[in-house]
Design goal:
A 4-stranded mixed β-sheet has the order 1-2-7-4, with helices on both faces. A 3-stranded antiparallel β-sheet has the order 3-13-10. Strands 5-6 form a two-stranded antiparallel ribbon. The chain contains 21 helices and 13 strands. By secondary structure, it is of the alpha+beta class.
Length: 506
């Protein structure tokens, strides 16, 4: 009997399987290492790549985005090319306008991006180009632009603030300057925005912000799937995570399980809409269902709504209250403005009242200048191109604009760029916007965020309601330390934002 035949005998199957498995694992590890080494091959000796290979950025900077900011500041053009990552990164507003407007057709999301997030986002609006993107964009634009829909959204937000957010924080608050329990404000805002987006988009109330703080299976599965999808980008090569997915091992196995649960729960939401009669409902999903029959497509739209309406708003609010905790002068100015516009007894600001609060609007914009919910965004060049600053872009290159870094560039915002200074947005007391390509927090050009106005209204409603009722201070040593961000599709503070809550006037 040959050695090959012996290996196939029934008695030897367990031993043979183990041998083959560990042999393959060893070869796969060596293959992965070889790919990583090849990506670091010495043909590139530029300052950026030498910095990438020799510096320990983790020891010098709190976050990877701070290291990118450091590199972009050192670049005369505000643009760097990291050869080992195959990525051109820019903080130059002229380049951003070139990508998002002038040569929009040359810089789609691209296949590499859609492959990276395709298992989670599918054919949703954030993961597609071309006709599919235009179709979803047109439908969403028609719905989100209507006064009726915006009024419906504000109604939901106001109800969630009055009936859940304020009572919950009041349960943690103490009077008389005593120190009460610490609450994770980031978790509170994630629950708040999850309730809102589910009610607004699907007509369903998960009740995550009830006093018992229940756990939502959908929220947990979605968080894990988002985190693991984003971590794919940290692999030395796409081959590594694709091989893990093929073998169904490690993080890819966890991702598959999380996405399976997300899919099941998303389909339950769709079926529930059908049972309730979607043609008479106000929520966004019902409006889409009137035009779309494809179950998988509807699932992808559900996931896109969750991504757009939950994590970005929660991230923006978390950063705002981190900053306001250390800037009592800004907090005082917002309170004074709200008292002047709303009067002392009004609970929740109306849409018209918020339009009169220019300082509040400036403070929210300034917060997101320093801590944008989406810290960077990438496209892929379809053809060779040249940026306005002279940078050559080869076909197939990943090109990234970096709002986080842009907010910290002296050449863009002046010598006080690191200061939290809402006044920079005001002229004679009136909010005055800048070019969206200088401030691409909501993207810009044809892909500008359709939910921008509703997100701002939601954030400002929360800010006014909470600052008029509570003093909220970041706990202990966290107050003097810059936030550390966890890897993800949006900016999430690692470890949350622990705060003490004190009720005012008690």
């Amino acid at each position: 009997m040959s050695l090959f035949q012996s290996c196939l005998s029934l008695e030897s199957i367990p031993t043979t399987f183990c041998f083959l498995f560990f042999s393959f694992t060893f070869l796969f590890s060596m293959f992965s290492l070889a790919i990583f080494i090849l990506r670091l091959k010495p043909w590139c000796n530029c300052d950026v790549c030498r910095s990438f290979l020799t510096s320990s950025w983790a020891g010098e900077f709190e976050n990877l985005c701070d290291w990118y900011t450091h590199l972009l500041r050192k670049s005369p053009s505000g643009t760097v090319h990291v050869h080992v990552l195959g990525n051109t990164i820019t903080a130059n507003p002229e380049n951003v306008e070139h990508m998002l407007k002038t040569r929009f057709d040359n810089y789609p999301k691209g296949k590499p991006f859609s492959t990276l997030l395709g298992d989670l986002l599918g054919r949703g609006i954030f993961n597609v180009d071309g006709d599919s993107w235009r179709f979803q964009r047109k439908m969403a634009s028609l719905e989100l632009g209507s006064i009726t829909v915006r009024s419906y959204a504000l109604e939901i937000v106001s109800s969630e603030i009055k009936s859940r957010l304020i009572p919950l924080l009041r349960s943690f608050a103490v009077a008389g300057g005593k120190t009460g329990d610490v609450v994770d404000l980031q978790d509170v805002f994630r629950r708040f925005s999850f309730d809102n987006i589910c009610k607004f988009s699907f007509g369903l109330d998960p009740g995550c912000l009830r006093l018992s703080l229940p756990i939502s299976d959908l929220a947990v599965a979605f968080d894990l799937a988002s985190k693991l999808s984003a971590e794919r980008a940290l692999s030395a090569s796409p081959v590594i995570w694709k091989m893990k997915r093929l073998l169904n091992i490690g993080s890819e196995r966890k991702l598959k399980e999380a996405i399976k649960l997300v899919n099941e729960l998303a389909k339950e939401i769709i079926n529930e809409r059908r049972r309730m009669g979607f043609s008479t409902q106000k929520d966004l999903l019902s409006r889409f269902m009137a035009s779309i029959d494809d179950e998988d497509y509807l699932r992808d739209i559900v996931i896109s709504f969750l991504l757009a309406g939950r994590d970005t708003v929660a991230s923006g609010l978390t950063s705002f209250f981190y900053l306001i905790s250390n800037h009592p002068d800004v907090e005082r100015a917002i309170r004074e403005e709200s008292d002047r516009v709303m009067g002392p007894d009004c609970e929740i600001a109306s849409y018209d009242q918020m339009r009169e609060m220019h300082y509040l609007h400036a403070a929210v914009y300034e917060s997101m200048r320093l801590y944008p919910p989406i810290q960077f965004d990438s496209k892929f060049s379809q053809d060779d191109d040249v940026f306005p600053d002279g940078t050559l872009i080869q076909k197939g290159t990943r090109v990234t604009y970096h709002p986080y870094a842009m907010g910290r560039m002296e050449r863009v915002w002046g010598p006080d760029c690191l200061e939290f200074k809402p006044e920079r947005w005001l002229k004679n007391g009136v909010f005055t916007p800048v070019s969206p390509f200088k401030y691409p927090v909501f993207q810009a050009g044809l892909r500008v965020c359709l939910g921008k106005e509703m997100a701002l209204v939601e954030m400002k409603s929360v800010v006014v309601a909470l600052l008029r009722r509570f003093d909220i201070r970041v706990s202990g040593s966290n107050s003097n330390r810059s936030p550390k961000f966890a890897p993800g599709l949006t900016a999430t503070v690692r470890g949350g934002l622990p705060v003490h809550v004190h009720e005012r006037g008690v």
